[in-house]
Fold each of these.
Amino acid sequence: MARYSDWEWPNAIESFQQALTIARETKNRTAEGAALLGFALAYSTLNQPDKVIEYSQQVLTLASETKQRSVELTPLTMLGVAYVNLHQFDKAAVYLEQALVLARELKSRQSEATVLGMLMICRAERQQPRLAIILGKKSVNLLQEVRTDLHDINQSLEQSFIQRWQLCYRYLADLLVAQGRLPEAQQVLGLLKQQEYFEFVRRDAGAASLTQVHINFTAAVGIAVGEC
């Protein structure tokens, strides 16, 4: 799907409507799903969560009917994010937990990190800071794995990646500060800085490679998301 600037999304929506009409006339369900997903992405960018929910539900239904399980990941995640934006955290968690299972099946680390990060917010808003921190750390650890892969390929890509995901790191750090776990919060924030990141790698004597560097857990690990 083409990339659009914020000011271009209204024109994009018109294009998606034309594509959807043609897809339905020709009974092309793959094209129909792509157009519906385009609507969901557009309204997500335009901060209209009700519309995101409307179109993501249609994509999810279509994917289920056509037995394209892998296609369900994006609409499930978008539904979760939309409900988080509406502060309906219980509904958000239902979709996010489904998305988490699918992200792990598909071995999509960035998708899994996204979902874990949103579940972190859900648990925090439901006054479950300990579980929120566990989920947030798992999210950041996955992001660190992706980041190190990008560093090996292209450092400018790595910097863009950090900018994109910094809110997840900062949200986790805020949770840790609120729980009085200042050294861990500083560690998380330090990961945002390239120099401190590589110093952290060098300090980790047990890491055989960059991708093995993880934030240390002080809370109990092994709690399933469904138990959160």
Note: Confidence is low (pLDDT under 50) at residues 1-7, 198-202, 204-228.
Amino acid sequence: MNESFLLLSIYGLLTAVVVGGMVILPSLLGERHDRKPTRQGEVGTNQPYESGIRPTGSARLRIPIQYYLLAMLFVLFDLEAVYLYAWALVGREAGWSGFVEVVIFLVLLAVALLYVWRVGALDWHRRVGHDIHQEAGLAGHQGRNKDSAVVA
């Protein structure tokens, strides 16, 4: 117990030193372009960039909710592979009771996938935005109905 605690403490201390070094050292050793007299007149000195490309437009974009929903679904269903891999490693030792539990797990995941599919969470061509106004009962909003006809 004492040796385990000592090793865990050393590991935690080394982790803190590495993280602290990664946070502090770049600010100490990095080049300061805004303080150089030859660089103060440059256009892109104080602007953010990504991969050397100047930004175009605003960073405040409205990303459709489907991206976030699909990412969450991917994480949820990707965890399935982790659990199945762990079961596959001990499949013989788990016996028939382990097999029944995995079948129940897979059936629950299949039901969840069918539900997500049924409600349209995987449909990228779903009408987004214009049907919200109809569902909210906003009269006078010009949008499209389910038949894609323009309504006033």
Note: The chain has four helices and two strands.
Amino acid sequence: MLFKKESEVNHFDAMWMLNSHEGKAHPRCENLLHSGNDFLFKEQIENALREPLAVLGGTDAARYAGIELSDNPDFGDYFSTVALRLGRTSTSDPRQIAEVLTHALSPLPQVAKAEASGEGFVNIFVRPAAAAQALFALGNWLNHFPGTEVGTTASALLRNGHVLDHKRSFVLKTLELLNAYLEEFDSSSAPCPEPSRLALLTEPEEFRVALQLHEFPSQLRTGVTCGYLYRLSILIHDGLFENGLLPEYWLCDWEEPQRILPRLYLLKLCLRVLALGTTSYAKPETNPKRR
């Protein structure tokens, strides 16, 4: 059974659920985060942008170092529009700013290639092996949060004042869907694959889900948004499932059986992130600008 019974939710978790509307980070989170952690994959890329941005536009510019998950793999796995933003408030050419930022990103072990495109976009292609190492580290990090393997219940969320609007309901349905498959495959006995095996998660849909998971530690630090969990749930539904069902080959791939365990691990991480996230709603959804 991957979901806790309502009576098994401990006092600490119940108090956190009651207080989550205050917009604070998860109390267990900050002591477990520091810049050297492998699972802070996306954050480490963003940190590499802060220094050149501070030089180009001051400390205010460094605040806009965030990168976004790309909808088109031709434009990288992540992209940034910060050069365009900085170009609007300075005399510098956005394309030249983008070129400076790509040079700052190129030495990173997480980055396979960074390129400037268009009027000032920064496109970032990540190394699958580095992303796999970060995914492995994320799973180990989640072990510090007791109960993440089993999640939460809709009744507990309702009892603690969460209004189950369309997006929250969709997140909970995704949890139920993942739970059903992981129970069917008896995932509790499955070993954790090594990072080299996780590097086999190279299908575009699998890779996008993995990259979205990499954002979760930073979300937990600043306050998990419903929008983040909703976007992750959409990626799971649209990328991993077809009409609510996993493709037949996905966990029974006789041609490439070495991919089965990494895929199962990916599903378990999705469930654990959604489970912990649903007890940590802290901020309303935001609407970041996308290309």
Note: The radius of gyration is 19 Å.
